[in-house]
Amino acid sequence: MKKMINSDILAAIIAEGQDTIPNVDLIVRDYHFENSLNYVLVGLRRSGKSTLLFERAQELVDQGADWSQIIYINFEDERLSEFTLQDFNNILIAANQLTTKKHYFFFDEIQNVDGWERFARRLADQHERVYITGSNSKVLGQDIILRLGGRYMTQYVAPFNFDEYLKSLEISHTSRDLLKTKEVGQVIAATNDYLNYGGLPEAIHLQDKRNYLTNIYKNVFLADIIVRNGIRNQKSLSLLIRKIAETVMHEVSYSNLYNSVKSVVSSTSRQSIIDYIEYAQKAYLLFSTKNYFSKFSEREGMPRFYFTDNGILNLFLIDKNPALLENMVAVTLRNKYFDKLFYLKSSKTKIDVDFYVPEKKMAIQVAWTISGMAREREIDNLIKLADSFKEVEKLVIVTKAEEETIERDGKTIEVVPLYKFLLKAANSEI
């Protein structure tokens, strides 16, 4: 018969957390939690979900709670390796050993315990405040809503935005700093690394970023997609993701992806391709934008796919600069506007614009440079759009480094270098 986890052991683990969390140095992130709600934090592996738990705990203490009320348990602690559903009630006993005041529960990697959802639902029904993270192999946003009976809100946690990235590197970037040559040089150098290696927090200070990102991708691929969904045809999935990386910047049909994969792996089916893409999106590896000009029923058929983090996309690319630039803009806009981000393409008018945000009435083109022939192409696309699509009021071209204001036919186009676009987005100016 299994021996239950002693409440004294749990009390010791909780007390250790109460001593440790106050001293954790954090980059304060732009997330808001309602005090009256419970949350499950979801997102790409290693995007900072656990440290956001620490930030929330510190925030609650700043609001008046004391540390004895913070009940943090990481279920990857080896002392809990035998923890089962029957042990959960001992957490409540242990918490009350430390204080009888209201508790705030923080559960990290809770998916390690089978049946954990029952305990989470019970706490919610008892009006406790609970914050949960877990690896995506078992804790995903779409699933969690059903499994927790609507008692929890999901909070998507993205890799660092550029403001957070610069803070992690201790690069000052106030508006005054950006008037100085040295400081601008530091920001631009950081932009290059951010473009190539993305914003996963642990990667920022590593020397061998590529090896770290390769391991993160392998974990997502194997644990969050292959194992979780019982996929047997790993070669088809691997090839599919590589093909999708090659399509960044372009819309692509499921049929084309199917044909590309099937030409190499003959056992692939069209339905399996559709399923694999859904699994990759649920694991927060990929996301897509739809054509705003298409009929609603047709929007799903020709998406443009992007990767949630530039560093992982960069693992697949050869001629990489334009694709990385567009993917970075896509990630930045997606993290602000989610499914309210589109692209614009019309065979009738020949308009082809990379991004459209209806609520901002803003159209955005992305170009590594607008020198040479690219200049007229990018400008003409936006002018043509503004002439035929009156809903658009703001026209933007994001480049790697160029900046200017273009006046044409009574229209104004703002050309913005990437580093300024990223900072504007982080400050809610885009």
Describe this structure as you would to a colleague:
This protein is of the alpha/beta class and 430 residues long. Among the domains are: 7-156, P-loop containing nucleotide triphosphate hydrolases (Rossmann fold); 162-197, no CATH class; 334-430, no CATH class. The chain has helices at residues 7-20, 49-62, 88-98, 116-125, 141-147, 162-168, 181-197, 209-229, 234-247, 254-262, 270-282, 310-313, 321-337, 373-388, 418-426; strands spanning 39-42, 70-74, 104-108, 129-133, 153-156, 286-291, 304-307, 342-345, 352-357, 362-366, 394-399, 404-408, 411-417. The chain has an eight-stranded mixed sheet, sandwiched between helices. A five-stranded parallel sheet has the order 2-3-4-1-5, sandwiched between helices. A hairpin with a 6-residue loop joins strand 8 and strand 9 (352-357). The model has no long low-confidence stretch (mean pLDDT 94).
Secondary-structure map:
Elements: H1 7-20, E1 39-42, H2 49-62, E2 70-74, H3 88-98, E3 104-108, H4 116-125, E4 129-133, H5 141-147, E5 153-156, H6 162-168, H7 181-197, H8 209-229, H9 234-247, H10 254-262, H11 270-282, E6 286-291, E7 304-307, H12 310-313, H13 321-337, E8 342-345, E9 352-357, E10 362-366, H14 373-388, E11 394-399, E12 404-408, E13 411-417, H15 418-426
Parallel strand pairs: 1-4, 1-5, 2-3, 3-4, 6-8, 10-11, 11-13
Antiparallel strand pairs: 6-7, 8-9, 9-10, 12-13
Helix pairs in contact: 1-3, 9-10, 13-15
Organism: Lactobacillus kalixensis DSM 16043
Protein name: ATPase
Domain DUF4143: 224-366
